Amino acid sequence: MYGAQTVNGLARDLTLRYGRGHTRRALYKYLQFYRAYSENERTTIAPVCALGGATS
What is the pTM of this model? Predict the structure, then answer.
């Protein structure tokens, strides 16, 4: 898998810094969640911003 060493290193570094729960598998789950919901976020926020309901 492309970038496997990078992901393993990131998981190790996050675990050392923040404690348990930052496994390689968890990082891929975070990525999967982001990909599933990031498009929804963009299509929801844009109309709200246009109405003045949010600022960013």
Answer: 0.58
